[in-house]
Amino acid sequence: MSTLTTSSPSPVSTVALEPVRRQRLTSLARAEWTKMRSVRSTIWTIVTMIIITLGIATIAGATIASRWSTFSPVQQATFDPTKISLRGLLFSQLIIGVLGVLVMSAEYGTGTIRASLSAVPRRARVLVAKAAVFTLVAFVVSEVLAFGAFFIGQALLTSPAPHATLSQPGVLRAVVGGGLVVTVLGLVALGLATIIRHSAGAITAYVGVLLVAPIILQALPSSVGQPILRYMPFTISDAMTSPTAHATSAFSPWVGFAVLVVYALVALGVGGWLLVRRDA
To answer: Residue ranges per domain, the chain?
Structure first.
């Protein structure tokens, strides 16, 4: 009588499986990149970011010098040329939020999310791939716009208005930080879209947190609103994009940025947990 024997997998076969796992993740990232660059919403949002961010820097830099004599002594003493050039990043924060929402919610709107999740049984990987690709795109675009807006704005700021250089204390941090804030807020929007699964609802929630909540808090008594206002993304962003704002803000720039990162991780974490548990 013959006996059946089973052999354990050899070390060679075990090792051979590892590149396959890595390749699946990279293939998933390439698929998400293909989705992102092939839809018109991505192109239009980035083009809008470029026009508004650089346009505001151009207008601000060109008009400040002519209006300098109308500024009060206090305004002249507290004038921040870096912050003026980066003022358009506030609108970039709104626009990148729309893109972050559409990266996820657009698939729910069209129903293609079912095909994506069917192809990748481990659903968390879909969100990881989307977040990774979106982070790379948002970071590159945001930093290019931050530096572009800074250089354009400072080139147009002529005497008697002062201008800033990257070698001055806090200026490089403010420019780099402006791009980082835009990137992280886009991830917050991506997380909200994963939770809400509806474009209009997620965009409304994002705009509410970014702009509406600070307005409401400022209308409340300072004893109630100020302790909460310090944690708002708008307040943290304002400190991050100014070389001197940390002297009067509740958080130092990098501590405030860490708070924003926590917001993004929480939103993505909750979204990933719901993505795994809910039906598509």
So the answer is: 23-277
